[in-house]
Amino acid sequence: MRKYIALATLALVVAGCEKSDNIPVVDDGAMRIEVLHPSATRATETAFESGDVIGVYATEYSGDTAAPLQISGNWANNVATTFDGAVWTPAKKIFWSENKMDVYGYYPYMTPTSVDEHLWSVQLDQSTPETVDALSGYEASDFLWAKASGVKLEGGNVELEFKHRCSKLVVKLVKGADYSGVLPTESELYIHSTVPTATVDFVNGAVTKYIYGEMETIKARRVDDGTFEAIIVPQRMETRRPFLEYIANGVSYLYEGTFVFKAGKLHTLELTINSNPDQIEVEVGGEVGDWN
């Protein structure tokens, strides 16, 4: 008799990427999926939120040979699975095979046109807030991906450990020697000269700059008076051109430069501003670290 994956019993781990010791186990023959969330992502920086939707694919093995992921014809095809704050509920059940399976997960949910070259873009305005019907601009730009390989019903659990597949830029403002007063409470930061469009590979989670994409300007999300952040498609700015622009009190501070945005990495820059908008310095604040 075929058993099924009851995705409605998905267990959520919210503390970084550490497993929970309190996941309820029900001996009903169902597969319970542990969703491991990166520890520094999205508005809460800690976990998925009620209303979030992930897409789930599953493929069946033939013996020890894994079936390739396809746009359709898989064991399970892009099943929308929604979190209500406690459990994950699938749009439809996924029945279990007696063979091993590969299970894929990604976020945010979309309708792929290809499993290896789906066109997708980060948002140009990542400062827009979340609404009842839509993610914030920042959240909608945070592509997460996970895969569990060769899983079987034995034990009842399967683990999907999500990872960031884009690049995150954090810009911290530093007052220069001749800058007086406090940092403005009303200010904006823009990232120029990057391509926001990418091809997404759901097989391995790769996000690659679209070769025919055009450079655009991204408005960063303001965290506080001195901190901004944005999610960027991994890419290399090979020639010096306008890069960062900070606007405050009607004054525009523009920095030209080159940069390499690496997949799954957190890049921190310190932007030193002075009273003269022509005097601006940028320094890398510490090492580039994993975005987890």
Structure description:
This protein is an all-beta fold. It has strands spanning 4-5, 11-13, 32-36, 53-60, 76-83, 88-90, 94-95, 101-107, 118-121, 144-151, 157-161, 163-164, 167-175, 187-194, 197-200, 207-209, 216-219, 221-224, 227-232, 235-248, 251-261, 265-273, 280-284, 289-290. The strands form 6 sheets. A 6-stranded antiparallel beta sheet has the order 6-5-4-8-10-12, with no helix packed on it. Strands 13, 18, 19, 22, 23 and 24 form a 6-stranded mixed beta sheet that branches. The two termini are 40 Å apart.
Summary keywords:
24 strands, six-stranded antiparallel sheet, disordered N terminus, mainly beta, 292 residues
Mean pLDDT equals 83
Radius of gyration over C-alpha positions, nearest whole angstrom = 21 Å
Low-confidence stretches: 1-29, 40-44
Extended strand count: 24
**What's the assembly state of these chains?**
single chain
Q: Order of strands side by side in the largest beta sheet?
A: 6-5-4-8-10-12
Question: What level of helicity do the residues show?
Answer: under 10%
Q: What structural category do the secondary elements indicate?
A: mainly beta
What is the chain-wise order of helices and strands? EEEEEEEEEEEEEEEEEEEEEEEE
| Major sheet size, sense and barrel closure | 6 strands, antiparallel
| Beta-strand share of residues | over 45%
General shape: elongated
Distance between the termini: 40 Å
Counted by DSSP, the helix tally is: 0
